Amino acid sequence: MSRVAIVTGAARGIGAATVDALVNDGFRVVAVDRCRDIADVPYAMATPAELDAVVARHGDAVLGLVGDVRSATDMQLAVETATRHFGRLDAVVAGAGVVAGGVPLWEMTDAQVDAVWSVSVLGTRRLLDAAIPAMMSEGRRDGRVVAIASAAGQLGLRHLAAYSAAKHAVIGMIRGVAMDLAETGITANAVSPGSTRTPILEASARLYGLSSTEEFVAQQPIGRLLEPSEPARMIAWLCSAASSGVTGAVFAVDGGMTVS
To answer: Between the CA of residue 228 and those of 40, 73, 104, 173, what are the distances in Å?
Structure first.
């Protein structure tokens, strides 16, 4: 029987690439995205059409679901959809995230900081709250939990303090959850991408007043931006049986950005 995953933030960027990678590995996927803008985030969120496009390229292997990761009800619905439609739940990928900033932390509004924090941190918690009990109740001893963090979760980035703090928190949450799950056979890991060709990187360039995302290349020793498929392949591996001995780890797919 095919394994089943839930991916949040699935309509574009690394989330969409993760759906592709998982399907290529034989998974069936519930692809979740909010598909509505957030007032205090300074760029457009993914659209329903983008989520539909992810679903369309995979046919019956992917089911799209519009839902907000900050909503316990929506995340419970995602889990129920996976188990009802596909019959089981083997892996979850917490991929939803937003960026705001471009100014010192003390010049950001509470609403801007809350938006960044709530999507990345509360959103990860809501998914895990819904998914882990379901995997445990199914008797899964090979379940997988993966969160998309960021190189910012290991660095302090100028004028992105709220984003860095949120990604640090995601890494800490995953490490703690890995210990909570240690005797269950369910693993929990994080992937920290560097500068990747995504809408978030485009938004970051605007926050910094850069003319192009290519200016971020200087941060990465490999001398180029990453493609979304590169962290996605690591995420898919962490969802596979081959990663059974790995838990509580943070995998940097960042072109060497955090080496020094």
So the answer is: 25, 29, 28, 24
